[in-house]
Every structure is written in structure tokens, then in C-alpha cells.
Amino acid sequence: MGVFVACYSSLRKLFSIFLLLGWIAVAFSQQATLESKLPFHGKITLFKSLDSLRSSGIQLAYSADKLTNQDIQVEKGLTIKEYIDYLRERRIADVQMSGNQVILLPHSPRTYTINGVVKTAESGEHIIGATVQIQGTKFGTTTNGYGFYTLTVREGDYKLKISHIGYKPIETEISLYRNTYLDISISQKITELDEVEVLSLSDDVNLSENITSINRISISGADGQIPYFLGEVDVIQNALLKPGIKAVGEDASGIHVRGGGVDQNLTVLDEATIYNPNHFYGLISVFNPEAVNNVRIMKGYIPPSYGGRTSSVIEVRQKEGNANKPSYSGGIGILSARMLAEGPLKEGKSSYLISGRQSLLNLSLDDFASTSVRRNRIRFQDLNLKLNFKYSQASTYYLSGYIGNDRNLVGLNSTRNWGNRMLNFRWNYLFTPRLFSNISAFVSQYNYKIESTEEPGAFVGRSRVSDYSFRTNLTYTLNPNNELTFGFGFVYHSLLPGSREPLDQNASTNKVELESEQGLESSLHFGQETNIGQFSLHYGVRLSGLHSFGSGTEFRYKEGVPIADSTIIDTVRFEQLELMNKEINVEPRVSVNWRLNNTSSLKASFSRTAQYIHLISNTISPAPTDIWKLSDSYIPPTTTDQYTLGFYKNLNGNMWELSSEIYFKDITNNIQYKNGADLQFNENVETELLFSQGRAYGLELYARKKTGRLKGWISYTLSRAESRIPENNQERFVVENHDKTHDFSTSWSMQLSKRWSASTNFVFNTGIPVTLPTDKYEFEGNLVPHFQVRNNSRLPEYHRLDLSVKWEGKEFKKDGSRRKNNDYWILTIYNVYARKNAYSYFFRESPTDPGTAEVVKYSIFGTIIPAITYNFRF
Amino acid sequence: MKKLAYISLLFLIFSCEEVVVVDLPDPQNLVVVEGWLSDIPSNQAIRLTRSTAFSNQGSVTPIEDAEVIVQSRSGDVFRYSYTSDGYYHSDSVFGGTSGEEYRLRIVLDTLEIRSDWDQMSTRVPIENLRVESFQENDPNNSDQQITIYYPKINTRDPQGIRNYYRWIFLRNGDMITEPEPITVQDDRLFDGNLIPNNFQNFEYDSGDEMTVQLQAISSDAYDYLDLLRSQITTLGTSSGTTPAIVEGNLFYLNDERPVLGFFGTVAVSSASISIP
């Protein structure tokens, strides 16, 4: 064969043939094999050792001018193969085997991936948002929503630094010469009084993350001590102390984020939608502080993997449960008692958590102006459950569940029940160390039921909204500078707007059932995070849509006139599964971070969001009776375009975190209501609706001190939210009911001594708009206020100071041994200086001077409210 | 028991009400019409007043110099003349006819105000009126119990037609406006049924003369009264409606200013009983 080639080859080729022939000759004369013992040991140079191998008959090819000659210490008794492996492991040469031939090449560095989870040493729970930084490089990442991290870098010996607020940062050395799986445990920091906390540069997540406008609340940390009404710890009330997040009043069962509506926040508990996050008229949220540990609120840029609501994402995560040992905690206050049990099912592999909360009192929050002689009474309870099971390094299963209930006795004969329930199954799977996937399937339901035994018309009324969802989200790390996220999701919405049945045979009402609504909300999303020099970019697109299906009826109205009952000209009947309406939206999102220097960055973002399901409510704050409605031919999806620009600066070695942001929001098809709209049991609710164009803009300033004995923040928002209704030929924008021009809040906590700590917060804001009457008149002896212009004035300024003091039980017994349980007391004083903040004005005829009208200021909390709670853990 | 009572009073202690003085916008001084045309023949009444500044002491100002007529669709015209306190009474004794449409025309300061046509409904009879009672602690003397009497009234809703009702309760001839100033009912959920109404909020004492009226009204009148009711009873509560103009069915022919109030027709059934 060689000879045949030689017939037409050049001289150079001829030379190589000689070489080849020579090797063939060597092969035939070979005596040694790879399994043979080495012919040398002790100190030897590389080239000498290779020569020796070659002469002992090993087919060895290498180029002496590419490999670096060096001294090698060789142990006695190695085989030739072991020696070659040693050369590879020490990265003296890369080795390729081709048949019997061994080719030694100079070593070229490669990239490898290190991944794993970061967890707490105490309970084994995964930590969300912990920073994993490769020291001496700019490469770093934060753990995702499951505590999982992945980093792909060039091989080498590195120091990995893992840090998270409230934890002791640790450094660990790694030799990254192959793909490595590494779980890292970090321990909670026990704050000593005179300890000086040193923050490293890696605690500047706020500067490095490429998303604008995120607020985080850690209920298990210092945020858990923020004083609130009757000593309760509440996620939503905490959120209200952050910039851009507002409520209409104390009992307002809904929050407005940057001028958005109360139904425009995607509130999720372990990724499953919660439709009504309120207990007890909105004074308490449904999130049991015992079971919840982490809250993230995204109000500016919303990543493409989220959608379905246009204003914000409020992501609440339940604790995972202690994977190391069983533990129990709980607390009792004036308003409620809670208990939690957690522990391993199989140590280190799986854990459980179960928690319950029960209101203790038959509390009554009276509808003060209600003329009913009888009082309303209310009770609530929650049950939270979480199981997780780590099947393998690559696979973890989670099961989360929640059931909540409010029961409200109205008068003597009527009870109302409402509540959310949710069951979510999630599967985290690592296809490769760089491809992380999360697949979830959940059912979420909101139920409302009223039972009235009072005649006339004893009845049982129900309404329900159910979501059945399947979603997948994949994250692929292309290289340290590029991460791709993609996936799809489906939510099948099934809505029962209302049914009303006679209570029993004797009841005089008829059965009324509004048609149910069915819709499939689907989405496809893609996003990329990438770093280019000082810039990092988070961008993507979400394609979303709603297909609504029969069976159902659609009314057709006369064209050219406002739709009303009287303008119905036809009804169209749709069969089961027949497509009734289709809505599609493309939602582009982009966020840019310009890292100016080590301590500051500038970010800008644009986010478009679409919403296909709406809360229909024309009361000042939503009621549990309000129904949800899918977009249809008459109710277009609400869309919001939001622009945010922010400047972020850290001071004093990241001790202080400062941010200032401006935003502008353009909202289309916001739902409004006609004067006197009748929304209950209305089969063509569309006739009562109007659609407004809304806009909201503002400036948010935020300064937070993260470390030291004194921690806390100051938040200020200057903003405006307004809307106009083009249908009514309204040209001017009118302020929204929830608009507050100035909104200031500050919250601080301080460790006073080993066992004593204190917290305080203060809020100040402009009163919400109020509509004042111009005139009064009489109608059949009733005094009627006349309102000419909506929102023509404001309530007085709102301000309030709260305090709390925490006293921890002894850590050690008298004999010096550590106590098994620890406990603490919290004394809370709400509204310290007893300000009578106005909740609203109402207008009435003077009881003492008939014919004279009065403006009455109503305060929900017109007094100082002290409370004490006891908490324990064992 | 006492302790429990204190606990449920917790919220009453927290909340408070305070009369405040607020700068109010300038008054509009609008025309207000209170007018019901009954199917019972009588000197029918209509009241015209003017709204005054909300902060004004005293009550509203009557309008004394208007020309007032009621027209029927079939061409009848009924003239009204001023009597007192804003009231105008029809010159003749007449009653509305079921099925006929009526409207109000007012000329005031050379401007004409009209109402929409309102169709007289058909009377719905009260099947029977009974007195029921319950015991309650005497608010003046907690050791004693008092008996409260209230009306229990059966009615039968006509099948297949939309009916709207207004209830009026009279105690010894005076209309009861507390605690419910306006009581309306709609048959959407009761169509064609026997309705056993309990009106526990309307309290009577022993010896009172109890009179109830069931007025059949139009759907427009129902909407107006319902809106009016929500605006006078739920304003300022968190579950309350947003303050708004209570729009009626009256308007100026050549002026943009709103006209408040309502002109409508009522077909009245009534029943009385003496409480022993």
C-alpha cells in the first residue's frame, strides 16, 4: 500500500512513507505492551522517559518542540499505562490513543462545568439567591429558585466563594479539571453584638443582576420582626413598606404596584397562582409566616418566563422542610396561632413540612355605616404542606399544597365561606450539568360560597375559578457569559361566575346558574442573559394567547350605540369545545445593565405584558364575592408597556445599597365600571363595563443598610396614576382611586443586647383621592350628597409609627448546658401615637341637627394597639 | 360570657368616627324632582326643590314658581299647582292606568325640563300580612328584654314577566326610613314564586298601626332607587360603591346642567294591621 502511494508522491511524501515503514517495523519488533512495568523509576526528564518507552517498543508519537521538557518523579512499580495516565492527569500532555499508537499532544485547557445546590447547614434547605463567585475572576452566579447553581469556566484551580445575606460566607477550593457536582452548605450567621461584619464585593447582587426593580423580603430574617397590627407578621404588609407598592387603606384587600390594578399582580405560592391573597378583609394575607421564607416582587422588568398579569409578579416560596432532623416551631398571638412541623422523611434525601394557622377570635370588623343591627364575625385558617424528594443528583421532586378558608357570619342567618386551595407538583431535572429544567403541574382554585337561611329566598350561592396548569422552563448555560431560558406553558381556566340554588324545597328562590367559561391560556417564551464587557443584557419574548371555548352564549349588540341590555339584537350559541374567541399577544422584554464601576450601575428596561383574566369589582376595595372573567369578544386583554430607568450605588463596602428608579407605564384596556353597574349574577356583564387608558409614572428612591447592629431601609415614592375613558369622550386624565403622590416609609431593626432587639417603622403618605360633594338634596326625606366631579379632593395625610421589642428566652440552662428549645416574646405597638388616620369620608345627616349635613372621617385604627406574641422552636 | 363579648368588641374600640370640617367645592344649586304618580286616584303630588351647598345649615330650598304638568302617551294632560314646601298638587283627582305611559314637563325660568316616559305597572297583591316578633335586650336596661314586632308578608310574583318592587313601611302613618331608607326587590331570582318576606329590620312596638305598601315600579325606577340606596347607605365603606351622580330620568331640553331626582309611576297594593 505504501509503495503504491509512493508511485505518485512528492519527495516529502516519500519521506513520510519511510517514517511509516519504519514504525511498522517497530510494531513488529515490539516486545513491551501498555500493561508492562515501566523500564524506569525515580527522577527522570520527560523526553528521556519517552525515549525509553519508545525503545522498549511502545508506539509513541510526539513532537519534542511542542511539549515542555520537565523533571518527573516516577514511583516504582507503575505500568506504562499508569505512567501515561499520570502524564495526562498532571496535564503534562494530552493523550490520544489510536489503535496501538499513543499520541502525546501539548495540553490545551478546556472548559468544565461545576454545579450543585447551596443549602443551609442547619436544616439542609436549599437557599435561593445565594451568590457563588469564583474568586479572582468576574465569573459568578446566583442560585436559582431551587437553590441550584451552575458555572462553566476554563479548567484550573479555583477558590469558590459562597455568600448570602444572613449567612457566614465560606470559601472552598476546587480543582476543576472535569465536570464536577458540588453541594455546598453554609451556616446562618449568629449576630454577635460587637461583631464587625465585613461584606465582600460579591454582596453586590443589586448591582450585578441585570433586572430592574426587584424587592425581596425574607420573612425568616430581620423582615420577620417588622411590627404590624396585633403582632402579626405579614408578607403583604411588609411589601407595602417598599417603594412603588401601595394599598388604598389599612383593610384594603389588594395592592397596587406602580399604579396597576389589584388584579394585575401575579401572586404565586410555590409557582401556583393564588387568586385572593387575603384573609380577614385584607388585614392579613393568606401567607402563613411560619411556612413561608422568601418573597420576591418584580415590578419593573418581568422575565419572559412570567406572564398572565400586567403589573407585577409576587413570588412567595414555602420553606422546604428540615432535611437533617425533625423540628417544630410555632407561635401564638392575639389574632392567630400557628404551628409548623418539619423533618426528614429519609435523611438527606427527602423532607416534609406541614403547617397550620388558625384565627383565635371571633373578630368583627364592622361595616360602620352598615345599618344592620347584627355584627359580622369572621374566622380564618390555613394549612400548608410541602414535600420534597431528591431522587438523584439530577432529579428532585417537590409537592406543595395549600388550603385556606375564611368563614364570615353576616347577621344571624347568612354565612360566607371563601378560600384558595392549591396543589403543585414540580420536577427539577438536570439533563446535563448545564441544562436545568423545571416541569410543573398544578391545580389552583378559588371558591366562594354563601348560605343564607333568611327568607325570602333562602339560598346557596357559589362561584369558583379553577386553573389547571402545565408548565416547563429550561435554562441552558451556554458559557459563563450566556444563559438561555425557554419553555412553554398552558393554563386551562374554568370559571363558574355564579350559581344560586334554593337552600331547600321551601325556599322561594329559583335556581339561577350563569354559564361557565372555559379558556386555554398558552404561552411560549424565550430569553437570554448575556454579558458583553461592562454590559449585561436580559432580553426575550413571550408569545401568549387565550382561546376561549364553548359551550357558551354570546350576545350580539346593535352597532354604533353603547352596548346595553336594551341593544341586544341576537344571541349566538356555541357548542362544547367550539372556539368562541381568540386573543394573541407578543410580549417583548428587555433589560440592560451597564456596570459603571465596582460600586455603581445603570439599568434600563422595557416590558410588555398581557392579561386575559380580570377581576370584576366596582367597590373601593375588592370583596371576596367579586367574580373573575376571561377576556372575550367584548372584554379585550389588558396590556401594559413599562419603561424603567434606574441608577444603583453601593456605599461603604456594600453596607449601604442605594437605588433610584423612574418608570412610565402605559396601560390599555383597563376595566372600569358604568355608574351604578350591576355586576352580580349578571349574564351580560360586558354591558356594565368601560375600558380606560391608564398611565402611571413615578420616581422611587430606596436606601437600605444591610449590615451592622442597625439594619433597615428608607423608601420614598413620588408617583401618579391616572386614566381616561375614550368611550366617554373623556380627554383629560383623572387620578385613580389608589393614587398617592408622596409615599414614604422607613423600617429599622436593632440588636440591643444578646437577648433584646427592637424594630420600628414609620410611614407617611399623601391621602388617597376622595370625591367630595358639592351639594346636598333631599329625596323623600333622605339627605343625598351630590357629586359633580370624581376624585376632586384628597383625604388628609396618613402617618403612623409602629414599634416592636423582641425578647429571646435563655439560650443556656442554669447548669450551663444548652436549652433544647428556644423561644421568644414579641411586644408590638401599632400606631404608637394613636393617630386617627382617615380611611374614608362619609356623608350623613347630622343626628343632632336634622337637615344639616356632616362630613365624617372614619378611621379603622383610631387608637394605639399593643399586642404580644409568643414564639417557640424545638 | 362577658369576656367573649369584650373580645368581639375589639374592633369597635379600634375604629372611630369624627365629624370634620372640609373645604368643599362650590355648590351647583340643581333642580331636584321627587315625583311618583300612583294608580290610586288622588290629588297627585310632585315636589320641586333646589340642592344647596353641602355645608349649608338647614335644609333645601323649595321652588315655588314652576309650571308643572303630567302628560299621558294617549294625550291626557294634568296640571299641577303649587301648594307649599316645594309641593305641587294636581288640580284634579286622578290615578294612573296600568299599561299607560306618563311623563313630567316643567317650565322653570323659561327653560323646559322633561322626564322620560315611565310606564305604569300592574298591581301585585299582598297575599297576607302577619306580625312576627323576637326578643332583644333592652338598650336602656340590659337586665330587661323587650319584644320587637316586625312584618312578615307573603306575595306571589306573576310568572313570566319581569317585576320590580318597592316596599314602603308606615308606622302609625309615618314612613320608616331607618335603618333601611329604601327597600327594593327584583324578581329575577324569584320569578313566579310565592315570596315569604321577613322584614326584621322594620321594628314596631306593641300598639302600633302597621301599614305596608307593595309598589310595582318600572325597571328604570328600580335602577334609580337601587343606585340612590347604594349612594346613601354604603358610601365610605370599603365594600361601598364609588361616589357618583345618582342619575335619574330628567333632563333640560336646552341646557347641559343635570336634573336630579326621578319621576315615575307606582301601582300600589297595601295592607294594614294593628299590633295588639
Sum this structure up briefly.
The complex is a heterodimer of chains A (874) and B (276). By secondary structure, chain A is mainly beta.
Provide the residue-averaged pLDDT of chain B: 87
Shape of chain B: globular
Structural class of chain A comes to mainly beta
Radius of gyration of chain B: 22 Å
Question: How does this model look, in words?
Answer:
The complex is a heterodimer of chains A (874) and B (276). With 874 residues, chain A is mainly beta. Helix content of chain A is 6%, strand content 53%. In chain A, the strands form 13 sheets. Chain A has a 22-stranded antiparallel β-barrel. In chain A, strands 14-21-22-17-18 form a 5-stranded mixed beta sheet. Chain A is elongated and about 120 Å long. The termini of chain A are far apart. In chain A, 42% of the residues are buried. Mean pLDDT of chain A is 85; it is low at 1-9, 21-30, 192-201 and 366-374. The model of chain B is unreliable at 1-11 (pLDDT under 50). In chain B, a hairpin with a 6-residue loop joins strand 2 (31-38) and strand 3. Chain B has a 15-stranded mixed beta sheet that branches. In chain B, strands 12-13-17 form a 3-stranded antiparallel beta sheet, with no helix packed on it. Chain B has helices spanning 2-8, 10-14, 219-233; strands at residues 16-20, 31-38, 45-50, 52-53, 61-62, 67-72, 77-82, 87-90, 101-108, 111-115, 118-119, 126-138, 141-156, 164-171, 174-175, 183-186, 194-198, 209-217, 250-252, 260-274. Chain B has 276 residues and is mostly beta strands. The chains are: A mainly beta (874), B mainly beta (276). At the A-B interface, strand 49, strand 50, strand 54 and strand 55 of A face helix 1, helix 2, strand 1, strand 4 and strand 17 of B. Strand 55 (853-859) of chain A pairs antiparallel with strand 1 of chain B, so a sheet runs across the interface.
